[in-house]
Fold this sequence. Notes:
Layout: E1 11-14, E2 19-26, H1 32-36, E3 44-48, E4 52-53, E5 72-74, E6 77-78, H2 91-97, E7 101-104, H3 108-118, E8 121-125, H4 133-141, H5 149-152, E9 158-160, E10 165-171, H6 176-183, E11 187-193, H7 198-202, E12 208-211, H8 222-234, E13 238-241, H9 243-251, E14 256-272, E15 277-289, E16 299-305, E17 311-316, E18 321-324, H10 339-347
Parallel strand pairs: 2-3, 3-5, 4-6, 5-7, 10-11, 10-12, 12-13, 13-18
Antiparallel strand pairs: 1-7, 2-8, 9-11, 14-15, 14-16, 16-17, 17-18
Amino acid sequence: MLENGTAFEGTGFGDERDTCCEIVFNSAMCGYTELLTDPSYAGQGVVMAYPLIGNYGICYDDMESTRPWLSAYIVHTLSELPSNFRSEVDLNTFLKQNHVPGMQGVDTRALTKVLRESGTMRGMIAYGESVDKEKMKSTVQSYVPEPTVPAVSHRESAVYGDGPIRVSLVDYGAKNNIIRSLVKRGCTVKRFPYDADFEEMLQFHPDGLMLSNGPGDPKECKKSIAELKKVYQNGIPTFAICLGHQLMALAMGFDTYKLKYGHRGINHPVKDLSKNKVYITSQNHGYVVDGHTVDPSVADIRFVSMNDGSIEGLSYRNGKVFSVQFHPEASPGPRDTGFLFDKFITLMGGSRL
């Protein structure tokens, strides 16, 4: 049941327990393993617009973090017999093992249309032969989401790779492929928790700073915003993705706002205004930077969404900071914009390996 009272019925799978969360939809046809384990989905119930999910099972090597972070998973048809030589476990078992509630047999096309027309809403999944719908509606309307970045960020620092270029990664809920994308380009990456002090990051003697993706409202990360003001003033080469992009914008005095239903999928067209070229991108966000608040003396708008015109990337006038709203590391999704990691390497004084 959504907070406006719209209800859908289906069959449970995974960990069949009642739960409340924010309900969003994803338009991808594949890549559900990476989606399930993307920390940016923490606190959300994800509706898959594509009707058949689970047909190639779960391969642990494709996971983008140590476990699933989403609160619930809603599909039209669950494939119970995966066909894939890499599959290690079926989707239903995977969700049970990781205590994620699931729901199948739902008219996900109708549910997606409700979310598009009415906007993202809170929702509740309840299991049983009969449920008290009035109680469900009351429960979901009183539900208040908790901050999610502290839950998904690694508290302990860790080092990856052994290359000559040193990168401090601020983990707001980082996907594994951000680290892999840097390591394979000759970087040694040290992961720091979301609330680390900038002075602590500098003790690693980094050539650059990477700001990761993550879940939730960027304005909740007040300490992170204060630390990023120091980052810009320092002039260290910085590449920011998704939540990191929003936090850097807030640190520079720009504003953010919540989209009606967000961008979630691996088929979102984005235009590079500097090259007059369009790329297909992987996206997962509910908030964007407000273009009307971007000071042109501080940053240029470089990327925009071809779907709704919202900002998808900024290049800062100091020449050391750039940020994107989409996911150049993909996983899942097209690799059209992987060249941005090469740009970051060049900005740090290295070269593409």
